[in-house]
């Protein structure tokens, strides 16, 4: 009985901790606002080697912030592994 309980607790604990993993993928929203699109463009330019970021918008506008990271990720060649 103790062995079965230990196995059950171990399996459940593993499932719980599996949900705590780091998912570095940034997902695009269903609807992209103009500030998200600007952030996406700037992030993509940054990934290509031409640093572009509106620091004020990055700090104050969540859509721009999210778009910048999304664009940087999408245009980063090392992100798209085969």
Topology:
Elements: H1 2-18, H2 34-47, H3 55-60, H4 62-74
Verbal overview:
It is a single chain. This protein has 82 residues and is mainly α. It has a domain at 33-82. Helix content is 61%, strand content 0%. It is elongated, with a radius of gyration of 20 Å.
Briefly summarize what is shown:
This protein is mainly α and 82 residues long. It has four helices and no strands.
Uncertain segments: none
Mean pLDDT: 80
Structural category is mainly alpha
Number of strands: 0
- The H/E string reads HHHH
Shape: elongated
Give the CA-CA distance, first to last residue: 46 Å
Largest sheet: none
Q: What's the gyration radius in Å?
A: 20 Å
Total of DSSP H or I helical runs spanning 4+ residues: 4
Helix content: 55-70%
Q: Give the percentage of residues in beta strands.
A: under 5%
List keywords for this structure.
82 residues, mainly alpha
